[in-house]
Design brief:
One of its GO terms (molecular function) is phosphatase activity. This is SpoIIE-like protein phosphatase domain protein. InterPro entries: Bact_Sigma-Reg, PPM-type-like_dom_sf, PPM-type_phosphatase-like_dom. It contains 9 helices and 12 strands. By secondary structure, the chain is of the alpha+beta class. It has 2 domains: about 80 residues; about 240 residues, PPM-type phosphatase domain (Phosphatase 2c, domain 1, 4-Layer Sandwich), CATH 3.60.40. Strand 3 and strand 4 form a beta hairpin. It starts with a helix and ends with a strand.
Length: about 325
Amino acid sequence: MNLLEYIKSYFQRVGWLLSCVNLLSLTIVIGFLQTSSFSAKERIVLYLTAIGFVYLVNYVSFILFLTKKILPEEEARGKMMKRYRKGDDRMQSYLFPLPIDDENYEVYGRTLTYNPIGGDFYNFLTDSQGNYWIGIGDSVGHGYLAGIFSMMILQRMSLLIKHDSNPYEVIERINEDLLKRTEQNPTINPSLYATFLLIKADKEGNLEHSGLHPSFVVYKKRTGQNRIMETDGKFISTTMNAGLKNVQGRNGFQLESGDIVFCFTDGLYEQKNNGNLYFGESLFRFLEEVPKDDLGKIADNLFIEILKHTGGRIQDDMTILMIRKK
């Protein structure tokens, strides 16, 4: 677009408003000077000053328009829509573990982040006695700071798990380490926190879990029904746990062959459509109705349903983690 087109676009945008403001301003100045006691020479100087000031205001307005400080409506809408992204899966591709599929369990995770680096995370690994440790969490915020905080939790989880420890103890030790880091490094933001669910599963299907995180769903193959399981424990935080009461943090249940655990972050059910309605209970209906044969297809179909709901964009990181007992 050349200068003449910019000028034309500028006047199309401001319309008669600028001309009316200019005319009104000059009329007020002329009326004031005509009734004043200034000499003819002083009036001429003041007339020229007023004209110069009006010119300066118009010039600055046009420059702001050119530098897009004053945005056309369509550009403003485009700027607002940048917060609704199509999602990014690079954290999963580069950092998160590959699926497990052995004689005891099938474990599959899928994540889509709002930014290339997000706050959602998951991890699974085995200890020296063959127990499976599976974690899923959501660090507050978006972007690199949330991602770094998540990576710290993943790293500590990998270092702290032992066959004779339990999920509650591991979370306690992660929080102790975070407190030491915060005390020794004042630049660490003490308000950072994450929801985190940590599960320990033995080969026979006995599961222990701890941590504050959104509820998870257990599908029982024998009855064909889903059961919502509440979480209990602590945040990963140096400040958020002080107000918690009656924390048990040690819970367990058993899986039979074919049973599935569905864990997820709040981004799955808090995605909104154009009518500002959450995906919400549609998540639980989906988990009831979807065929349970293929965990990968479950994740694919769920993400497709969510993107249909939102019109192809997401407003938060979203993650699902599934555990099937063989």
